[in-house]
Amino acid sequence: MTAAPSGYATGWFVVATSAELAPGEVRSLTYFGRRLVAYRGAAPARDGDRDAGGGGAVRVLDAYCPHLGADLGVGGTVVDDTIRCPFHAWRFAGDGSCVEIPYNRGARLPVRACVKAWPVRERNGFVFVWHDRLGRPPSYEIPVIAEHGSPAWTDWTTNKITIRTQPREIVENVADKGHFPAVHGTHIDEFDNEFVDHMAVQRSAGIAYPRGGGSDRFKLTATYYGPAYQVTEMESFLPNRLVNAHTPIDEHTLDLRFGVMLEKVGGDAKMARYAAAYVDNLQRGFAEDVQVWEHKVWRDRPALCDGDGPIGALRRWYRQFYPEAPAAAGAEEQAR
Ligand code: FES
Ligand SMILES: [Fe+2]
User: Is residue 74 lining ligand 1, measured as CB closer than 6 Å?
Assistant: First the structure.
């Protein structure tokens, strides 16, 4: 076993749903212990960013203006593909560079007048930013979910909860076979993990007992793409796709987003009811985990038994998202 990973992982993290950023909309965010601003500008989205809905690409910048420090996310407005600071109306492009100062009398803009721009992808109805401990560009991509946008499937029904825990606790669920019956009342028949590059896969089958009553025989493949975004393909009473994604707010809290998409077997009203019930059940499931997560300690050297899942292998896989800078402490901050 390895020591607890600390700081923020390298990878893609969900910071909003596509629906939360209408054309021209600005959102103020706090993630990775920093203030960020997201906005949907007018410039076309990249290939593969399928959720722009004609509204242009989403941009994510550090929030504090390099001029006199106003928060661009609080009162900032979108002008074309730029965001205008609420304080003195300097405008910043999606790459973080200052493109206009309304009262600048020199020909040139101040060299230092730029903010950090975060790599962004919009996939499957979610907006991701790339956080890298060493300041490197993205090393993998988020795959498209083929069913998303299909008329045979509903759109996402999503929710978000804020939890006082560490990302490593959320991720460990993927290999923690033993907790499913104890915490979730789920009967497990098959359980298998595979760790390949930046992906961690769980294949399982069993019977879930939704807290609202009844039973649901399921078979699923749940795949983490990187440290913080998991897609589940499930065969059950209703075939579904689940997303669960966590993003650290600071070193002690994180946002956990989850969503469900169902294959349509009835009209919109019926599907909306099913989706609401699924999300409610998911939320109850997470609430069961949360009670443990918010009160537990981390064991670097847990006492494991034969029936436990491959927790050591999961931890070794997860470690890849916490590369250390070769230089002394402080390099991470400088690289950002
Ligand atoms: S603080 Fe942003 S323009 Fe002055
Ligand atoms: Fe769980």
Answer: no
Nearest atom within ligand 1 for CA of residue 101: 3
Burial class (CB in 10 A: 0-12, 13-18, 19+), 295: exposed
CB 88 near ligand 1, within 6 Å: yes
Distance CA 47, CA 56 (A): 12
The pTM of this model reads 0.93
Nearest CA to ligand 1 atom 3: 88
What are the DSSP calls for 29-45, one per residue? EEETTEEEEEEE-SSPP
Q: What's the Rg (C-alpha) of the chain? A: 21
Residues 264-273 have pLDDT tens digits of 988 989 999 9
Report the nearest-CA residue for atom 1 of ligand 1.
Answer: 68
Residues 6 or more apart whose Cβ sits within 8 Å of residue 279: 157, 158, 159, 258, 259, 260
Domains of the chain: 11-131 (2.102.10.10), 157-317 (3.90.380.10)
> For residue range 137-189, what is the model confidence (pLDDT) as tens digits?
999 999 999 999 999 999 999 999 999 999 999 999 999 999 999 999 999 99
